[in-house]
Amino acid sequence: MEYRRLGHSGLTVSAVGLGSVLFGKHVDEPTTRAIIDQALELGVTFIDTSDSYADGESERLIGKILGPRRRDIVLATKFSSPLGDNPLHGGTSRRWIQQAVEASLRRLGTDVIDLYQIHHPDPLTPIEETLRALDDLVRSGKVRYVGYSNVAAWQLVDGQWTARTEHLSRPVSTTDHFNLAHRAAEAELVPAARALGVGIIPYYPFESGFLTGRYRAGARPEGIRLTRSPREAAVLTPANFARLERWEALAAERGRSMVELTIGWLLSHPEVASVIAGVTSPAQVRGNAEGAGWRLTPAEMAEVASIG
């Protein structure tokens, strides 16, 4: 397993991380345990979750299963997504941050969160209020590092400028939707992160299975997440299937799989610290870890870019 620094921080994470969005909802406790056991055995040291995943059950399971092994991993969670209908239960206000972190610490069974991330920007709360509340958590020892998620480039720049000028703990990462089929981040977010020393943590690296070749034009596998998602119409298009065919050919010419191309392409961006994917079995964890060995040359990156 390769290990990378998270942005310009001193925090080191495994190049392949473990996403937990499915734990406690689509993946039961015994399978979750088997997945986490397999991940740690393979050298995965980065586990990402959120207080909103399965209404907090994902956090609870991770905390229960890790036990004393908690010290061996970088544990990341998120806050700000609405939890129920009460308008006070969500967002990035100081009030909610103070409540949310205590609840996450209890569920995770730990006294400190390694990476505490704003899950979604909150337009109703000034970024200075949010960053100051997070800085207080760092100073109190409840949180070690802070990060963003789902931000636009201008929000990343605004947040980093605010943290710097107000002498607050600067977020070290941003977790965003980024993959071969969804490359909007390349235009502005990736260059901004590079300039500011912020690490990128891509989620949905396989576009819910599309980039593994699981889907074919005219065929819709039953019981697969993407076929139950509102994103299906935007992903399963003739243009995307045509691109997938060319990506598969590029990988096959080099004796590689689509999993290797998908993860390798992301990790060939120096700004990317760790690629996280939600999994439903230990076999998927092994496949992701084994698929992380390819680093594309500049010529190969250009060839991928030419496909569109």
Task: Look at the structure and give the mean pLDDT.
Answer: 94
Fraction in beta strands: 5-15%
Q: Give a short account of the largest sheet.
A: 8 strands, parallel
Low-confidence stretches: none
Terminal CA distance: 30 Å
Structure notes:
The chain is an alpha/beta fold. Helix 1 (29-41) links the parallel strand 3 (16-19) and strand 4. The model has no long low-confidence stretch (mean pLDDT 94). The chain has an eight-stranded parallel beta sheet with strand order 9-8-7-6-5-4-3-10. Strands 1-2 form a two-stranded antiparallel ribbon. The chain has eleven helices and ten strands.
Architecture blueprint of SSEs:
Blueprint lengths: L2 E3 L6 E3 L1 E4 L9 H13 L4 E3 L8 H10 L7 E6 L14 H15 L4 E6 L8 H14 L2 E7 L3 H13 L7 E5 L11 H8 L2 E5 L28 H4 L2 H16 L4 H10 L7 E4 L3 H9 L7 H10 L1
Parallel strand pairs: 3-4, 3-10, 4-5, 5-6, 6-7, 7-8, 8-9
Antiparallel strand pairs: 1-2
Helix pairs in contact: 1-2, 1-10, 2-3, 4-5, 5-6
Keyphrases for this structure?
308 residues; alpha/beta; 11 helices; 8-stranded parallel beta sheet; single chain
